[in-house]
Amino acid sequence: MLWIGVALAAPARADGIEVRKAALISGEEGYVLEAEFDVTLTHALEDALNKGVPLYFVLEFELTRPRWYWLNEKLANARQQYRLSYNALTRQYRVGVRTLYQNFASLPEALSFMSRVRVRDIAETGALSKGSSYTAALRLRLDSSQLP
Predict the structure, then answer these.
(1) I want to staple 136 with a disulfide (CB 3.0 to 4.6 A). Which of 6, 51, 104, 105 is the partner?
(2) Would you say 24 and 8 are in contact if contact means Cβ atoms under 8 Å apart?
(3) pLDDT of the chain along its 148 residues, tens only?
């Protein structure tokens, strides 16, 4: 099993989101991205969420191989959107990823679920080789373009 650590240049602190750890793991069907974030909401965002405004978060990942003779080669690119909402009628928080949704009784539980990321099929098996150097960029951010 090949394990590649992801080097992070600067954590996204503007939205209260910090990368705790990240790894690209080789499996039988390809590479899997596993990451953990520390997600905290500001008081204003938490207040807006509790008043019914859904918050959208975007996970972005890019893996490149630096080349001295040409532009860097992009090996993998992934983007995933999360929707965090609150239902006042049921008093539950809801996290949506693609077409899957899960309900939570409290905001810390919902944020804990969002903070653990596992994305399959980042790259095909054999796309990375031992002894080569790669650059990875990972970010989870609040999508402010989705705010009202």
Answers:
(1) 6
(2) no
(3) 444 444 443 333 345 899 999 998 887 888 888 999 999 999 999 999 999 999 999 999 998 888 888 887 888 888 999 999 999 999 999 999 988 999 999 999 999 999 999 888 777 777 777 878 888 899 999 998 888 8
CA-based end-to-end distance of the chain? 45
C-alpha span between 21 and 8 (Å, rounded):
9
| Residue 127 near residue 121 (C-beta atoms within 8 A) | no
Rounded Cα distance between 84 and 86, Å, is: 7
- pTM for the model stands at 0.81
Amino acid found at 121:
D
Yes or no: say if 17 and 141 are a contact pair by the CB < 8 Å rule.
Answer: yes
